[in-house]
């Protein structure tokens, strides 16, 4: 009996992991700026992640935040008296992600290097109103701080993007 319960738990965890990996490969998320004081070299964002499982969405938020800073950028925010300018993506050259897919597969793997550049605000707990049911899945927002400058240096050191000032 205990063995069947344990196997059921492993199967459920495996299914959740497979779902998380599938969702991550599709990069289904939205990023928005967050008003607040970020440390120098960091950017505060709210990441809306889509998933059929609430726990999976929260777990994937860190990957999505780093991916957003790298490839999508962050739109501007005007919130009352707060004005946060848009942030361009760190990687603007077309095809970089596809040409370096082996690098990014390892970088964004569970326990991958992406974790060095992300810190969850409020321990990754979504705020009231940041868990929405959309059809058969959830859209969950988590606030995250991304070490943008350090992430840029990593991408430069790994040859993914050119160093600032190159070509002048």
Approximate shape: globular
Q: If you average the pLDDT, what whole number results?
A: 85
Biggest beta sheet attributes: 5 strands, antiparallel
Number of strands: 7
Q: What is the percent of helical residues?
A: 25-40%
Share of β-strand residues: 15-25%
* Discrete helix count: 5
Q: Structural class per helix/strand content?
A: alpha+beta
Q: What is the CA-based Rg, rounded?
A: 17 Å
Helix and strand pattern:
HEEHEEHHEEEH
Number of domains: 1
Distance between the termini: 69 Å
Low-confidence stretches: 1-12
Layout of helices and strands:
Layout: H1 2-26, E1 29-33, E2 43-51, H2 54-72, E3 77-79, E4 82-84, H3 96-99, H4 101-107, E5 118-120, E6 131-134, E7 137-146, H5 148-157
Antiparallel strand pairs: 1-2, 2-7, 3-4, 5-7, 6-7
Helix pairs in contact: 1-2
Essential attributes:
7 strands, globular, alpha+beta, single chain, 168 residues, five-stranded antiparallel beta sheet
Structural notes for this entry:
It contains five helices and seven strands. The protein is globular and about 45 Å long. With 168 residues, it is α+β, with helices and mostly antiparallel strands. It has helices spanning 2-26, 54-72, 96-99, 101-107, 148-157; strands at 29-33, 43-51, 77-79, 82-84, 118-120, 131-134, 137-146. The strands form two sheets. Strands 1, 2, 5, 6 and 7 form a five-stranded antiparallel sheet that branches. The protein has one domain (16-157). Helix 1 (2-26) runs parallel beside helix 2 (54-72). Residues 1-12 have low confidence and may be disordered. Helix content is 39%, strand content 22%.
